[in-house]
Description:
There is one protein chain. The protein is an alpha/beta fold and 255 residues long. The chain has a domain at 44-221: 3-Layer(aba) Sandwich (Trna Endonuclease, Chain: A, domain 1), CATH 3.40.1350. Helix content is 37%, strand content 18%. A 5-stranded mixed β-sheet has the order 1-2-3-4-7. A two-stranded antiparallel ribbon has the order 5-6. It is globular, with a radius of gyration of 19 Å. Mean pLDDT is 81; it is low at 1-15, 21-48 and 52-56.
Amino acid sequence: MFDIFHRINHHSSATATFYSEMYNGASNKLEEQSGCIFGLVNCRSDRDKPNLVWGDSMEAFEQVVKVFLENRGYIVANNVKFPVRRKTKKAERDEFQTHGYEMDIVAAKSNRLLLGSVKSFFGSGGVDRQDFKGIEVKGKKTRFEAFKVFNEPEIRRGIIKEAQRRYGYEADQIQLCLFVGRFRTIEDEHMVIRHLKSIKVGAGSIDVYNLQTIMKEVIEAAKSKTYFNEPVLVTIKALRQSGYKITKSEFTEKR
């Protein structure tokens, strides 16, 4: 992680401060088991701070996504809450409440901030059209609540605005993403990707990364002869060392 930090150059004073705080926060965490990777001086409470302790505190597929993004030059934290102030539905008077909405992954470069939701859905039906307003089949069960950031424009705008305030990035530098381990069907995958690309927020449309895209780069990263104390990369290296080879037919699941 620190190697990535030292490779970041030519950023603005605002993002320079951001990265300095991030580095110091990481150092403090390693030395004192306190602080936070992004140095969030404006966090409302400890609950709003991201996690720096990887492993048990990070969902397994989030760990894979972390490696994928680090291989692309990002510094990554997980479980970051963004407070969003929303008007309640009370008709008699205007009333507002603030709720914290969590992004599974926050990844930073000097000129780009990714806010990502991670859905593995391994061993289950998979992400499908019923998770998103506007493309669902009417009358069938939906899971809108689990995909609020993609279904509620007010929440999306609030998260982007808070990320701007907190980290110093411009709105057009902040990218909203969805990382998916399993889609229910190929048709669902194509439909969801088209739908999310039609939504404009922050830097543009919402990017979707499927398992094939993620694992192709992670497996490539594991070819490096440099040792990293990273469970995902070490697992792939161990499989190779044992003589086991992952074939395309094994890697590509039939749906």
